[in-house]
Amino acid sequence: MKIAIGCDHGGLEHKNAIAEHLKERGFDVKDFGIYEQVSVDYPDIAVKVTGAVTSKECELGILVCGTGIGMSMAANKVKGIRAAACSDHFSAKYTRLHNNANVLCLGGRVIGIGTAIELADLFVDTEFEGGRHQRRIDKITALEE
After folding, report:
1. What is the pTM (predicted TM-score) of this model?
2. H-run or E-run covering 6
């Protein structure tokens, strides 16, 4: 699986740790930056990661900012993206299982690196359940039209 990842200045350390961990697990990780601690506008990174997901260059995306909220707001403006800001294990698992989220957003100032890695693992390891949940995803998709 190929995973797109990116961050702003609030998530650099977390992004780097998650990317390295996922590579060690055998995932193909495409890093859209940032690469050094400089201030950037999170929508600029969100559009790069979501573009890789919507173009199917990558199957899933992970974005990290200070809270995860700004990245999720920006990402969800892109047609075809279902981004979820998560800070707990249940949400990270069930946003894939029931909501078929394709972008995980994390807060570098909200959760520790260890938790961020665990949430990323849950996100990439969980498959969409389908069934009754597909009807709801179809309704979300219809809102984009």
Report:
1. 0.98
2. strand 2-7
